[in-house]
Amino acid sequence: MAELSRISDNWIRAVTKNKPEWIPTRVLIPYAVWIKYGKELEKILLKYRSLFPNYVEGNWANHLIPPDKRFVQGRFMDSWGCEWSVQKTGYPGIVTAHPLKSWEMLTSFSAPDPMILGDFERQRDWEDVLLMAESNRKSGISNVASFTDRFIFSRLCDLRGIEKLLEDFKSEEPELRQLVQLVEHYYAALVRKYLEIGTSVFMFADEPDHGQLTNLDTTAFDKFIKPSYQRLFGLISEGKGIVHYTLKGSARRLIEHLLECHVHVISTELSSNQLEELAEIQEWVSIDCCIDSAVASSLKPWEIRTCITRIIRSLAQEKGGLLLTLECPPEMNLTTLEIFLKVLEELGGPYLDSEAIS
């Protein structure tokens, strides 16, 4: 198994197109799959250790515990005042009540303190983050900050509701710009804090539901979302950091806009994009090609190798620029998962900060 510093260096080389040793490959396994299979799942992961360098043997029981209330059956209110409903433990919930359903509520609304409270009522432990950052620095490992739960657009959807938000984009109410500024300031404080402690890789995702952002009118994106992206991602680029951005839906429609926002690598779904289109996009940014749950569910066992080989033939280059992600569907059985892992281990290698959890 490669050393963690070598894995980190290889990931950077892949993203910056600097001749990586292997294609960084990650496997995202939802909590529903852990809950279903538990220790039996761990046995399979241990057979393919190179793909899960951070996994600790015997830790399977901890993976049965959801990280926050968003995965626990019931209803709860997050730190922004959004009410969530979770139908089944292990599956992510959805926002069912929005604190800013009326603009009159904006005058008394405030964001949570980003230095104290996380999105889902998790207390931030900066001392622990600092200790980990220092340990990584001494070991030559890149520090990673993940904003893959919520970001600018998805936060606005949570606060206003998607229908009202789309109306806001059309009417251009002054309150909308005020709200965008409030949300941006929250994330700017976190980005600056992570930069301060030496974070070099930032991962973002901004899709509350499939396709909402990629279907958004590009004029609205340019007016209300893009400026915040440019400022926040610009801070990261100025600090020599890397921006990894996950985009659900077709990447082609927004790629020109995202290129102006200092994005270095785009993770996007195979089900929504043609490989030929991704190859064109790859001229400007690196591609993290996601074999998403829709594709993974549709493949017969004997089609798995063909699918992955086709991706590599279309997008792999000696200079780099390709990463792979497998998004396991909740209904995936262990036999199919093992076929995926066998092929991915043969054709790729470990990914930065591989956790075996999504």
Describe the structure.
Helices cover 42% and strands 14% of the residues. It has 358 residues and is α/β, with parallel strands linked by helices. The protein has a single domain (4-54, 123-350), classed as Alpha-Beta Barrel (TIM Barrel), CATH 3.20.20. Strand 8, helix 10 and strand 9 form a beta-alpha-beta unit.
Low-confidence runs (pLDDT<50, min 5 residues)?
354-358
The main sheet comes to: 8 strands, parallel
**Secondary structure tally, helices:** 13
The structural class is alpha/beta
* Straight-line distance between termini: 22 Å
- What is the CATH C level class, in words? Alpha Beta
- Estimated share of beta-strand residues: 5-15%
Query: What's the helix-strand series?
Result: HEHHEEEHEHHHEHEHEHEHHEHE
- The proportion of residues forming helix, as a percent range, comes to 40-55%
For the largest sheet, list the strands in their spatial order. 5-6-7-8-9-10-1-11
Average per-residue pLDDT, rounded, comes to 91
Task: Give a nutshell description of this structure.
The chain starts with a helix and ends in an 8-residue tail after the last strand.
